[in-house]
Amino acid sequence: MNATFDFSGKSILVTGASSGIGWATVEALRASGANVVAAARNVAELARLAEETGCEPLVLDVSDEAAIDEALASLDAFDGLVNCAGIALLERAVDTTAASFDRVMAVNTRGAVLVAKHVARAMIATNRAGSIVNVSSQAGLVALDDHLSYSASKAAMDAVTRALCLELGPSGIRVNSVNPTVTLTPMAVMAWSDPVKRDPALQGIPLRRFAEPMEVAAPILFLLSDAASMISGVCLPIDGGYTAR
Questions:
Q1: Any residues with CB less than 8 A from the CB of 158 and at least 6 apart, and which?
Q2: What distance lies between CA 172 and its chain's CA centroid?
Q3: What is the DSSP-derived secondary structure letter of residue 56?
Q4: Residue 149 domain-assigned?
Q5: Mean pLDDT of 122-144
Q6: Alpha-carbon distance 113 to 131, whole Å?
Q7: How many domains does the chain have?
């Protein structure tokens, strides 16, 4: 898929960049001329991404507030942010523990809030209009078995998107979410390889297939671009129609 826009001269921060949707987003942004700071915890994969795309790697754990403060304080203002860092700890509701719930919320929601805070502050201080895209999930829009913590974190992320839209809009900063279905990262390909698990899930998707990473990256680039200049506060399903039911 060719997902290119003109981001020449634009600087974008992408968290969760070392795999899956984050990786595809970095590739697409670099192909579109953007300067990209790619943040993640996986040092080896970040180095490989930097070698392949020319992005600037940044080792960062978004669940660590002090690490976020230190890392972002030394960076110049960005024109855009993609909050893609996330984890999923799937367990039955009756087996949910405080530790697992807090861990998922710390990465998926709190991390996104803290990174967005720093990026937005710098945008405002430099009178720089920009765009923030939060990578949420269909699990934030509908209930899924064994997804209580994950669903809560993504529904909260969508609420964060709306709150940021309201507060940052007067500064010319747009904020949106994308809400993808199962996306075929290497880990997801393995996780959904069993037909017993895969086939019923596909039956719930009108298009009868899962998403490819670039099919999520392309709408992210659209929302970052000037083509979406009047779009803010939106939670955009990228799910082949799953949430239309």
A1: 134, 136, 140, 141, 177, 179, 235
A2: 21
A3: E
A4: yes
A5: 94
A6: 14
A7: 1
Q: Which residues contact 214 (CB under 8 A, 6 or more apart)?
A: 1, 3, 24, 28
Sign of CA dihedral 133, 220, 60, 119: negative
242 is catalytic: no
Report if residue 1 sits inside a domain: no
Q: Which of 23, 150, 210, 242 is catalytic?
A: 150
Q: Rounded to an integer, what distance in angstroms lies between the CA atom of residue 221 and that of residue 176? A: 12
Which CA distances in Å does 136 have to 44, 126, 186?
25, 28, 19
User: Locate tokens 């209009």: which residue?
Assistant: 129
Which range marks the domain in which residue 150 is found? 11-183+212-236
Kindly state the DSSP code that residue 20 receives in the 8-state scheme.
H
For residue 102, the domain's CATH number is 3.40.50.720
Whole-number Å distance between alpha carbons of 112 and 116: 6
Beta bridge partners of 178: 135, 236
Q: What is the pTM of this model?
A: 0.95
Which residue from 179, 205, 224 is spatially nearest to 79, judged by alpha carbons? Answer: 224
Confidence label for 194 from pLDDT (cuts 50, 70 and 90)? confident
Nearest to 33 by CA among 224, 188, 173: 224
Q: Tens of pLDDT along 30-69? A: 999 999 999 999 999 999 999 999 999 999 999 999 999 9
d(C-alpha 92, C-alpha 243), whole Å: 22
Assigned domain for 203 exists: no
> Is 194 in a helix, a strand, or coil?
coil
> Would you say residue 133 lies in a domain?
yes
